[in-house]
Specification:
The structure holds two protein chains of two kinds. Chain A is mainly alpha-helical. Chain A contains ten helices and two strands; from the N terminus they run ααααααααββαα. In chain A, strands 1-2 form a two-stranded antiparallel ribbon. In chain A, α1 runs antiparallel to α2. The longest helix of chain A is centred in the N-terminal third of the chain and has 26 residues. In chain B, β1 and β2 form a beta hairpin. Chain B has two domains: about 325 residues, no CATH class; about 45 residues, no CATH class. By secondary structure, chain B is mainly alpha-helical. In chain B, α10 packs across α12. In chain B, strands 1-2 form a two-stranded antiparallel ribbon. Classes of the chains: A mainly alpha, B mainly alpha. At the A-B interface, α2, α3 and α9 of A face α4, α5, α14 and α15 of B.
């Protein structure tokens, strides 16, 4: 196999993607928001995938994007978004001197890597993957051959490891049910059979000043519909009282009396009655 | 790199890129009109019929209007990400089309070339990869809007894509096994004797289901469920940025339809009665067959939208993880086993079917026995749980406000009793204690 010089196109791809991926890596470290960091990682991964493609490893490049960018980073993003939109990390060091040690370790690791890889590669002719790809008739076939013959054990061990990890996560997240889950059908049948409230419960009240779930709605005759407030709140007694003066006014209005004089009625809403406040 | 592209001159590549771009934009405009007309008919309406012949120019006018509208960016939006999200969405939608074959070799200005921009050994994986980057557009749009409903839409979208992409890529595996290749043109060529939709029917059905989930279309349009999330991930987008999302959604519909055509319906190959005609699969005719097949899928999309109500989120997730993925896993094992038996023991189709039928009987009987046993166990569990539930409910158990356990009844004792709730300001200081609350309710 003779040594092959990279073509101009390949050189351009390398320099563009190399700069982009290093920039992405720096962005990961320097971003203050966790989501921005995750985006920079995704960016770096895509650039690496393009480099794989340019180096005659199309399968690896595509799998890199599908698995890492598409699944792993997406899960990261999902978790970051669940945790909170604005949870930018606190920059206070919890371990003293962590930053200095971290930088030292990173520099040391970088030197080791550059010296090691550089030493191993110096004087080696670059042959590319063409011969390896041609051996079994293509890149995909070559990888399949290696995975399922020479590295079969490693492949299966990794698979077992991943499955145990997934099972572990399932066990950790498992919840013991108190009772078998009722299906939608059972719930609705029960509701009809009881005959108390076959339709959905009325919505909480929406008023000019309050529309939270603890505010009961009014029935058409003006009476307070307590069932419009969720059960746990009712059980705890966290019902926001409906303004009686306003209620009387509503009833009066519905009977055709003019109650709105030049002065507004005094607002009978004591701030002390707001629910959830420790007393 | 040399295996990745056809030997086209540079001007032809540019021409093809341009043609695909124009075709996708036109298809989008057409699909929007087509959808509104079909849904209109399904709902006993006429649909847009004012602008141009049959209302064909309606979506063009809508697009112009959208572009000229005022753009409103929320104050809480993360500007850079907010800006880049629709760009990612739209770009990736266009990119995926690079490997779709439209037809066989044709002659363009004297150059013999296939009707396909490019192809390489893993081009189906390329479509998957591009689709998975495209999702970032939706997720980031949801996150960067700095608003609740878009965030929920983005969250749903990311979970949905991860789940349905799994089922989708597993439905590809059977096709790869049969075609012996992951390149789109090779897969089309391998379907010359028979379409994979026929011999790999379960894969086809799984793919068609997953593709509706992938494109956020009804009944799987949870990321933009207008009944729950206003507009979902694009609630805070307006003007051209919203138009980009719109464009991306419709191009994605065309893309997944084109991929379904390529993988399962023989790509640009003529369907049966037409394929008897000798020159059906030569020249420019295949482009027409391809277009008809893609439009067929798009019609299915529209039909689904006109027919089915939206799934609840948990139903949707359960369907993806507990039905689609196990089904495709089992199916892959079946297909792979059939292939191995065929190759190693050179068994005939008849023998294969016999063995398969025997295995099926064993599985059905076995699962029936298991079902009976698990039913009995469940019955015992229910009895045990019912005994547990007979404890009365104390809303302040252990001094903390707690919800009732499943099956426990609420006791409507309240700090402010039913009557007290109406009369403002009757709260007494000791009413916040649980024990007093029950007393008070008896007083009232």
């Amino acid at each position: 196999m003779t040594e092959t010089e990279p073509s101009t196109a390949e050189a351009i791809v390398f320099w563009v993607c190399a700069i982009f991926s290093v920039a992405g890596a720096l962005g990961l470290i320097l971003s203050r928001r966790a989501v921005h960091s995750a985006l920079w990682v995704a960016f770096t991964m895509i650039n690496l995938a393009v480099l794989y493609l340019a180096n005659a490893a199309p399968f690896l490049g595509m799998v890199q994007i599908i698995v890492y960018t598409g699944a792993v980073m997406m899960l990261f993003l999902f978790v970051l978004m669940v945790v909170g939109v604005d949870s930018s990390d606190s920059l206070v060091e919890t371990l003293r001197g962590q930053r200095v040690v971290g930088i030292l370790l990173a520099v040391g690791f970088g030197i080791l890597l550059i010296v090691g890889v550089g030493g191993a590669l110096s004087g080696m002719p670059a042959v590319g993957l063409d011969a390896a790809n041609a051996e079994y008739g293509g890149n995909v076939e070559g990888i399949a051959r290696l995975l399922f013959s020479e590295y079969l054990l490693a492949f299966e061990v990794v698979a077992a490891l991943l499955i145990s990890a997934a099972l572990g996560a399932l066990v950790l997240a498992h919840r013991e049910r108190w009772a078998p889950k009722r299906t939608q059908r059972e719930i609705s049948e029960e509701r009809i059979r009881e005959g108390i409230h076959p339709t959905p419960l009325p919505a909480p009240g929406v008023y000019a000043r309050h529309n939270a779930v603890d505010t009961p709605g009014l029935l058409p005759d003006g009476s307070v519909a307590e069932i419009s407030v969720p059960g746990p709140l009712r059980a705890r007694g966290d019902l926001r009282p409906v303004d009686t003066a306003a209620l009387a006014e509503t009833i009066a209005l519905s009977e055709g009396e003019n109650v709105l004089g030049p002065q507004d009625h005094p607002v009978a809403d004591d701030p002390g009655t707001s629910p959830g406040e420790p007393k | 790199m040399s295996e990745m592209v056809f030997n086209d001159p540079w001007w032809l590549i540019i021409l093809k890129v341009l043609a695909i771009f124009v075709m996708l934009v036109l298809l989008t405009l057409f699909t929007i009109w087509w959808e509104r007309r079909v849904v209109g008919r399904m709902q006993n309406r006429i649909g847009p019929n004012r602008v141009g012949p049959f209302g064909l120019l309606q979506s063009l006018m809508d697009g112009l209007k959208l572009a000229l509208k005022e753009e409103i960016i929320p104050k809480t939006a993360h500007r850079a990400v907010y800006w880049i999200a629709p760009v990612i969405s739209a770009t990736m939608a266009f990119l995926a089309f690079a490997v779709i074959p439209f037809g066989p070799m044709v002659s363009i200005f004297g150059v013999e070339t296939p009707l396909q921009l490019t192809d390489f050994p893993v081009s189906v994986l390329y479509v998957l990869a591009i689709a998975s980057i495209g999702i970032y557009g939706i997720v980031l749009a949801g996150w960067s809007s700095g608003s609740t409903y878009p965030l929920l839409g983005g969250l749903r979208s990311s979970a949905q894509m991860i789940s349905y992409e799994l089922a989708m890529s597993m439905s590809f595996v059977a096709v790869f096994l049969y075609a012996g290749s992951m390149s789109t043109s090779a897969i089309v060529a391998a379907q010359e004797p028979i379409w994979y939709a026929v011999i790999l029917l379960p894969s086809f059905l799984i793919y068609v289901t997953a593709m509706v989930g992938e494109t956020n279309r009804a009944p799987f349009d949870l990321p933009e469920a207008e009944g729950e999330l206003v507009g979902g991930f694009h609630t805070e987008y307006s003007s051209l940025k919203f138009a980009l999302f719109f464009l991306a959604e419709y191009i994605n519909m065309v893309t997944v339809s084109a991929l379904a055509t390529t993988l399962f319906l023989g790509g640009w190959r003529a369907p049966w009665p037409i394929s008897l005609w000798e020159s059906a699969n030569t020249g420019w005719w295949p482009l027409l067959w391809w277009l008809v097949k893609v439009q067929l899928f798009i019609f299915v999309f529209i039909w689904l939208r006109g027919t089915l109500p939206r799934l609840r989120y948990d139903q949707f997730m359960r369907f993806g993880w507990k039905v689609l993925i196990p089904a495709s896993l089992v199916w892959i094992v079946v297909v792979a086993a059939a292939r191995v038996i065929r190759n190693e023991y050179s068994a005939s189709t008849q023998e294969l079917l016999l063995v398969g039928a025997g295995a099926l009987v064993v599985i059905v009987v076995g699962s029936w026995v298991v079902q009976i046993r698990s039913d009995r166990k469940e019955q015992r569990e229910i009895e045990r749980a019912k005994a547990e539930m007979r404890k009365p409910f104390d809303p302040y158990e252990g001094g903390y406000p707690v919800p009732p356990l499943p099956g426990q009844e609420f006791t409507y004792s309240s700090r402010r009793s039913a009557a007290g709730a109406v009369v403002a300001g009757t709260v007494t200081s000791e009413a916040s204690q649980g024990d007093d609350a029950s007393e008070e309710s008896t007083d009232a």
